[in-house]
Amino acid sequence: MKNLQPLVHATHCVLKITIPSIKKSQIYEAIASYSGFKSYAAFQLTDELQVTNKEQANRQCFERMLDIGFVAD
């Protein structure tokens, strides 16, 4: 199992300055979608991570953020 808590906490602290409305759950979802998963729940079930196409991963990440209602202030 992956321990993303330190990464998510650090990312949240940095982004909270410019995007006060961002939630940690949104960051977890963004990481999961970047890794090719439809949700953080699905992401938690795997032990292997490998991003092969970074362009596609970026697109998936941004699309997922829009799907969950994230709007940058």
Key features?
73 residues; 60% helix; mainly alpha; 4 helices
Structure description:
With 73 residues, the chain is an all-alpha fold. It has one domain (5-67). It has helices spanning 5-18, 24-34, 40-44, 54-67. 18% of the residues are buried. The model has no long low-confidence stretch (mean pLDDT 89).
Gross morphology is globular
Strand content: under 5%
Question: Number of helical runs?
Answer: 4
Q: Output the structural class.
A: mainly alpha
Through-space gap between termini: 33 Å
Task: Give the radius of gyration.
Answer: 12 Å
Summarize the SSE layout with pairings:
Blueprint: H1 5-18, H2 24-34, H3 40-44, H4 54-67
What's the short version?
By secondary structure, the protein is mainly α. Helices cover 60% and strands 0% of the residues. It contains four helices and no strands.
